[in-house]
Design goal:
The protein has 335 residues and is of the alpha/beta class. The strands form 2 sheets. An 8-stranded parallel barrel has the order 1-2-3-6-7-8-9-10, surrounded by 7 helices. Strands 4-5 form a two-stranded antiparallel sheet. The longest helix is centred in the middle third of the chain and has 21 residues. Bound molecules: 1,3-dihydroxyacetonephosphate (13P). 1,3-dihydroxyacetonephosphate binds next to helix 12.
């Protein structure tokens, strides 16, 4: 295993108060978000949007790594400079989403399994050659009165462990993302119980597949009440539940945890991360950071609207959100 290289990549990704930017929306997801924002859904607009992001002034001061979608790694600015090269020049490690989305899991109505293990070894070798040094695989788990089923959790966590082992073998740091979705009326306690179960199974599977916990980053959901639960939880309560859940299930050897935002507003995602740092300062075995997509990009996308004349103001917003997340990592965020 290329342990020195994996270790250096992790050091770069977790450095200082920086975090990750997930800009790896698949074509379908990107089109959906563009449609909602009134932006034309074409490959050229995807490219222009990603150009706006990677060329945002100062991005490298806030962001340590950017997760890209396969479409993006071959794209370049209008002047012909590859996005990967722009990121590297800004001191941002380029990474790649390697799962191939989800499909219905046979035998488990309403549940999904993530695809992408076939041919992954070869794809990882190619991505390594292109200079990509970390990867992401997302598993999704739904909550309802009867979900999630044990078989769904086991199949998804097994796939995550197989992926992580292949990444480490290729010299690529795996970002391991078991996302418990926010949809539903469930309460915070239910999210805590499901997230805890999922993470326990995940670490059992990682152990079973000989994945070295020193060379991965966990990307979990925060512990929150469901989106349609009418009773909101306080910021401190979410921070406490999230950290306690992680303390129960994530071994101290894991170097870092980088949260997804999962559909929370940008402000709330930042406030929750901040409260974790304020309330648990000096008490956590791992670095706690962010790997947000919507909570960094959404406000900028709404300003950009697909228009050249809005690029500068959208870039400022992107930088603003990312720098607030840096403040949250220091426990110094004020809304
Ligand atoms: P959100 O922060 O929008 O949840 O996205 C994170 C991500 O990478 C999902 O896979």
């Amino acid at each position: 295993m290329k342990t020195k290289e994996l270790s250096n990549t992790i050091k770069s990704l977790l450095a200082g108060d920086k975090g990750l930017l997930a800009m790896d929306e698949s074509t379908g997801t990107c089109n959906k978000r563009f449609e909602e924002a009134g932006i034309p859904q074409t490959i050229e607009y995807h490219r222009a949007y990603r150009e706006m992001i990677v060329t945002a002034p100062g991005l490298g001061k806030c962001i340590s790594g950017a997760i890209l979608f396969d479409e993006t790694i071959h794209q370049a600015t209008k002047e012909g400079v590859l996005f990967i090269d722009i990121l590297k020049k800004a001191g941002i490690v380029p990474g790649i989403k390697v799962d191939e989305g989800t499909t219905d899991l046979a035998g488990f109505p309403g549940e999904k399994i993530t695809l992408g293990l076939d041919g992954l070894k070869e794809r990882l070798a190619r991505y390594y050659q292109l200079g990509l040094r970390f990867a992401k695989w997302r598993a999704v788990i739904s909550i309802s009165s009867v979900l999630p089923g044990r078989g769904c959790i086991e199949a998804n966590m097994h796939a995550l462990a197989r992926y992580a082992a292949l990444c480490q073998e290729a010299g690529i740091v795996p970002i391991v993302e078991p996302e418990v979705l926010m949809d539903g009326p469930h309460d915070l306690k239910k999210c805590f119980d499901v997230t805890s179960r999922v993470q326990h199974v995940l670490f059992d599977q990682l152990y079973g597949q000989n994945v070295n916990l020193k060379y991965l980053i966990l990307k979990p959901n925060m512990v929150l009440p469901g989106l349609s639960n009418p009773k909101p939880a306080s910021i401190d309560k979410v921070a406490e539940a999230t950290v306690n859940c992680l303390l129960q299930s994530v071994p101290a050897m894991v170097p870092g945890i980088a949260f997804l935002s999962g559909g929370q507003s940008a402000e709330l995602a930042t406030a929750h991360l901040n409260a974790m740092h304020v309330n648990f300062k000096g008490k956590l075995p791992w670095a706690l950071t962010f790997s947000f997509a919507r909570a960094i990009q959404q406000p900028a996308m709404e300003l950009w609207k697909g228009k050249d004349e809005n690029v500068a103001v959208a870039q400022k917003m992107l930088y603003h959100r990312a720098s607030l997340d840096n403040a949250a990592r220091r426990g110094e965020y004020t809304p």
